[in-house]
Amino acid sequence: MKRSVIKGVGGYLPEKKLTNADLEQMVDTSDAWIRERTGIRERHIAAADELTSDLAIRAAKEALKNAGLSGDDIDVIVLATTTPDDTLPATAVKVQQAIGMTHGFAFDVQAVCSGFMYALSVADNYIRTGMATRALVIGAETLSRIVDWQDRNTCVLFGDGAGAVVLEAQDGDSSKADQGVLNILLRSDGRYRDLLVTTGGVSRNQKAGTILMEGREVFRHAVTNLAEIARQVMGSMDVCADEISYLVPHQANARIIDGTAKKLNFDAEHVILTLPYQGNTSAASIPLALYDGVTSGRIKRGDLLLLESMGGGFTWAGALIRF
Predict the structure, then answer these.
(1) What is the set of active-site residues?
(2) 181-219 pLDDT, tens per residue?
(3) DSSP 8-state assignment for residue 271
(4) What pTM value is reported for the model?
(5) In whole angstroms, what is the distance from residue 182 CA to residue 196 CA?
(6) Alpha helix segments (H runs only) across 152-253
């Protein structure tokens, strides 16, 4: 069978940093309060003239360079974002133009913080079925544009950034020893959509709106759903926790990450954590964590990775990938 092997990784964070000390000057909060409840110390904020596509293009070009490929080597781009440049066209086609990809196709997907995992699943299926040989999968966000900077419960959480991976088809034998994406499981439950929403929408009021979140309820569902889907995806490939090299979680909240890791019996040394210095970058957080793990030398070829994410909708996902 065909496996989707990660050939290259890329990431980009805007130059401007917003620290907890900066936020103390903006809203009624403190560095201690933020770190205790979230684990975040600082986050990156896009410049006024920096669009989601600009972040995505930077990450995409680095992933291609890392893979030793050019834009014309890519058959499909799947870009996950909640904060596209425009209502239309898709932000992905701007990336397509920027990397010099003149064939194939490009489009966006929207599953909030689970967006990258959904995009990865789509690209993986194109490769498995032979519709594509190489895919560029991107998560990119400028969440600072939809944050209410007067709401101390949400404005401390989010940051901007982009991460990308290049996938390439490779033959496998259908076993857990294969390199590449072994399995991805996706879930959603619209009964809980009102727990994490924005105040606007094109069809509803022609506005982007700002983020509203019921933090306690999101936390409760997140730990339960993430641990459950992680066990399910491991079970689907007959993988035990001690076979996993690293847990690569969505970087939403340190307590959620810690709670999920404990349920799965992972110690801190086997968790890729970028949250303290990046905040929650939604669809960008998992590819940025992958990028951090690879470029720091922790994640090496042959390592078995467990990815998991949860976002508004609710949407959640789990994946096993042998890097």
Answers:
(1) 113, 250, 280
(2) 999 999 999 999 999 999 999 999 999 999 999 999 999
(3) B
(4) 0.98
(5) 30
(6) 202-205, 215-236
